[in-house]
Amino acid sequence: MKLKDYKFQKKLANPPAVGSAPNLRGLHHLQTKRNLALALGLTALVTVAFKLFVNNPRKAAYAEFYKTYDAEKSFERMKANGRFQSC
User: Fold this and answer.
1) Coiled coil located at which positions (predicted)?
2) In 23, 54, 57, 84, which residue has its Cα 20 to 30 A from 12's Cα atom?
């Protein structure tokens, strides 16, 4: 670097950085890997949240319903209401 160039760069408030060109080689590949990892992580998170907040309460509600469910009593009630044409 010449003395003249050094003085010129010293006067600049923000001298340009050496090698500041963007790295475009393989950029699509890197972005695809990042997006894939992000998508898989979010998918796993949503799957666990759905299981905890939707499936488990639903299974508990079905289990509670079928603890006291009497199929014969339900059949007789529907039969008395005229739901079946064959009975």
Assistant:
1) none
2) 23
The residue whose two tokens read 């759905």 is 50
The CA distance from 67 to 46, in Å, is 31
Residue 58 lies in a domain: yes
Distance CA 2, CA 81 (A): 102
Instruction: Round to the nearest angstrom and report the end-to-end CA distance of the chain.
Output: 103
Structurally, the chain folds into a number of domains equal to 1
Q: What is the pLDDT of residues 25-57, one digit of tens each?
A: 899 999 999 999 999 999 999 999 999 999 999
Q: What number is the average pLDDT over the span 2-23? A: 64
- pTM more than 0.70: no
Helix (H, G, I), strand (E, B) or coil at 35: helix
- Does the residue 73 lie in any domain? yes
